[in-house]
Amino acid sequence: MARGRPVFVCQACGAVHNRWSGKCDACGAWNSIVEEASSAPLPGGTSARALGRGRVVALESLSGSADEAPRLVSGMAELDRVTGGGFVFGSVLLLGGDPGIGKSTLLIQASAMLARSGHRVVYVSGEEAAAQVRLRAQRLGLGDAPVALAAETCVEDILATLKQSEPPRFVVIDSIQTLWTAQVESAPGTVTQVRASAQAMIRYAKTTGACIVLVGHVTKDGQIAGPRVVEHMVDAVLSFEGDSGRDFRILRAQKNRFGPTDEIGVFAMTGDGLEEVHNPSALFLGDREPDAPGTAVLAGLEGSRPLLVEIQALVVPSTLGTPRRAVVGWEGSRLAMVLAVLEARCGVRLGSHDVHLAVAGGLRVQEPAADLAVAAALVSSLLGSPLPLDAVFFGEIGLTGAVRPVAHPGPRLREAARLGFKRAALPPAAAEAAEEAGLTALSVPTLDALVARLAARADQTRMKEA
Ligand code: TYD
Ligand code: MG
């Protein structure tokens, strides 16, 4: 291959520059530009194409056969839920996550399930030796599953191996960062290599109809390293999250061409590998303390699945000039908004208090329906008065202080009733749904109304104690 002029490629976004510089103009990252040996074009071009002559391709109509995309169902319900009902044939999925979170474990388990149900499965590990993968599989009781195992990092060798026998239905590449192709000269792990290798695997998937899962590592700031550029090329991006200090793991779809992106799958890491958690509310509610002020249960929704989680707040007088605002598992800007509305519309002064907010169990909540539960937890902590143990909260708070309706109150309330809750503080529009679910509705038209109710309750308890 002819050696081109050296190029400088940003390892964060893949932008190509003529000169080295400390900062990438395209994405603003610092120290991310690396010299790569060659400006060779990406593989795929043939000499005919290079000369400008194209091959004629058959054009099709939209009205052709449009069956539901055929899918490969893994049999792990939590995984299938996140992929949108199984892996789509001919698709490529990128699985990202911190090192040690359990990506390889999840995929060896899924591979074994698929292989046991008669599909041809190839697991290619570029990080661990075949013996290590085998050892882990045996320890997980999967030693008997007919998974074909290889430890290889060269794309050409992998493709030659795959093409040599009956085409596999499911291929795992662990990980994309270790792959390299002889088509480009850059070092393994660079953007150019990762992109060219991913392209070769994608082309293989599209031509053979195999489902390919690429594992990608995540950098400190949460991006799938290098393969940010790969995210655009693949059909789906899943992320595997969780605290390594805790046992449960959450699988979340960030992008999915063939399914929803708001579904989550919940697993628990045990001594025997990943176990599916079919009843996550029980897990996230954990052991609730009856007399702890500052905790409120959110009747939340993740995708189509209702999920009850405990929101914990701690409001304490601050010793700092600028009080601290710390949030775990929720958006900081959303907290700032709730605090501003509490201050401006309800007269709750928090300007000289530190505020700490956490979603119990390490879950990350994204929906605005959490506003009301957050506000209740904050006010409860400030008053030093616990909220009723049998109540759940949900509702979006507007800047005017109005509590707005949220999507799908029914499933939220039914889940709350199933877990033994008796009351729900909610937007007035959802009151009927609460009665239907067998809960007492506490309609809160405005945040002010909730604050007044909580303050009255705190007074009552204080008088009873006196
Ligand atoms: P692994 O799948 O190797 O993570 P990744 O591929 O994302 O880097 O998981 C490694 C971690 O999982 C390791 O810290 C040990 C833990 N683990 C268990 O707790 N139980 C098990 O059965 C297995 C296989 C791993
Ligand atoms: Mg691994």
UniProtKB/TrEMBL annotation:
GO terms for molecular function: ATP binding; ATP-dependent DNA damage sensor activity; ATP-dependent peptidase activity; damaged DNA binding; serine-type endopeptidase activity; zinc ion binding. GO terms for cellular component: cytosol. GO terms for biological process: proteolysis; recombinational repair. Residues 354-466 are annotated as: Lon-protease-like. It comes from the Bacteria. A motif (RadA KNRFG motif) lies at residues 255-259. It holds the Pfam family Zn_ribbon_LapB. Residues 68-218 form the RecA family profile domain. PROSITE patterns: RECA_2. Gene3D superfamilies: 3.30.230.10, P-loop containing nucleotide triphosphate hydrolases. Keywords: ATP-binding, DNA damage, DNA repair, DNA-binding, Hydrolase, Metal-binding, Nucleotide-binding, Stress response, Zinc, Zinc-finger. InterPro entries: AAA+_ATPase (IPR003593), DNA_repair_RadA (IPR004504), P-loop_NTPase (IPR027417), RecA_ATP-bd (IPR020588), Ribosomal_Su5_D2-typ_SF (IPR020568), Ribsml_uS5_D2-typ_fold_subgr (IPR014721), Rubredoxin_2 (IPR041166). ATP binds at G97, D98, P99, G100, I101, G102, K103, S104. SMART domains: AAA (SM00382). Belongs to the RecA family. RadA subfamily. Plays a role in repairing double-strand DNA breaks, probably involving stabilizing or processing branched DNA or blocked replication forks. HAMAP family: RadA_bact (MF_01498). The middle region has homology to RecA with ATPase motifs including the RadA KNRFG motif, while the C-terminus is homologous to Lon protease. This is DNA repair protein RadA. It comes from Hansschlegelia plantiphila. The lineage of its organism: Bacteria, Pseudomonadati, Pseudomonadota, Alphaproteobacteria, Hyphomicrobiales.
